[in-house]
Design brief:
Blueprint: H1 2-11, H2 20-24, H3 28-31, H4 46-49, E1 61-71, E2 73-77, E3 80-84, E4 90-99, E5 110-118, E6 146-154, E7 159-179, E8 185-206, E9 211-218, E10 221-233, E11 236-249, E12 252-261, E13 265-274, E14 285-290, E15 294-298, E16 308-321, E17 325-336, E18 355-368, E19 371-390, E20 429-446
Parallel strand pairs: 7-10
Antiparallel strand pairs: 1-4, 1-20, 2-3, 2-20, 4-5, 5-6, 6-7, 7-8, 8-9, 9-12, 10-11, 11-14, 12-13, 13-16, 14-15, 16-17, 17-18, 18-19, 19-20
Length: about 450
Amino acid sequence: MRWLGALALVCVGSVARASIPDVFGLGSEESAVAGASSARVHDFSAGYYDPAGLTLARRPEVSIGFLGFGSLLKIKQGSDERTAAITNPTGVLIGAATPLPFIGALENRLYLGIALVLPDTVVRVIAHAPDQPFYPLYDNRTQRLVVLPALALRLNWGLSLGLGFNYLAGLGGRVSAAEGATRTLEARVDESITSKLGINAGVRWQATRALAVAIVYRQEFSIPFRTVSRNNVAGQPIDLDIDAEGLYTPHELVIGGALKLPFRVTASLDLQWSHWSAWHGPFVTVSSELPLVGGIDAKPPSVAFNDTFGLRGGLEWMAVEKKYSSLSLRAGYGFETAAAPPSQPGVTNLLDGNKHRLCAGGGLRFELLGSHIRADLHGQLDIVESNTLTKKVQPGKPDPTVALGDEVADDPAKPSTLGTQISNPGYPTIAGGGVVWALGFTITLETK
């Protein structure tokens, strides 16, 4: 019954969430200003930050880049301390942006862009038990392909509209197994991959030559995973229904501005709200029908996530500006509140904290063989404030989201059973905090 054991392992798991842009940003130029980019973005990364920014692309351009990242996040349990790693910490970026070559009324009106983020795998799921300590906003969150096409329209009075499409697929179907004519286990799998689409919409207004403002909405996005397993072994039904929601990002609203200052300096600022309180949590729902036991409805623990608020600011200084070349230096700071609840007295051990982002980078623009080339690089640190989760113990069988209960009844004849017996790895306390880092570069070729 190895197959049944493997399936049961999935039933206590969490699922992959989000993407590299949601965690680290998209492209070195905008990442260097901490993602304070809604009103200043102008290249392929506009599909994420603000699709309306594509209208700033003056000529066709293609980009390729690389991002590497790592974790120094800590999990502290008593005297034991370990690092929570990020699996497969690399990604390749490919992008393009161009004005569409219409004439007449549509000349210099429509713009097209696409961004691709290619991790080591198309998508990866890592399972965790409900009581396992991990960082839900970092763990496994970067491991999915991103396909983000976008379209923008330039209107009059400095107004531009943009729409991006966050595309992937969901999985659903049926798995069945039963004894065949030879009494061997015969299995049938009928799974289908269905498309899933979310939108990124933006409005940009060039209010004056120096000031631009933007509003961006990113739709909630997740990948459904629903599988029904119907099995018959030795005349006994063994059924499992699995329902998961992977690659989750919440509804997000961004309001931002960019202002050109004296001495060739551009300042940008973004305010962001993320609707994390709508998330049911990183766990899988399982219902089953087992011999002798009957029906089991294994609902995951409920976690009350909090909406988050973020502030990001960036500065760009064009240190050198010549006819055929220029050098820009960039820096940024970001702050975001914690999504996971700061108090978890029950079974869960979801680690999180307020986050501070420090970024720096630069860009060189030059001509080569008649084409313009931009080379940008950046580095960033995410500092996650430390937080300690303290468990509560109540008699009997308390609600697992509220408290833990003694797992072994006291037996005077067995001294080992006396006292409180709790196996939860977060008991009596568990703490987290630390640093996540990223380094990247992007090369862009602007054609004639």
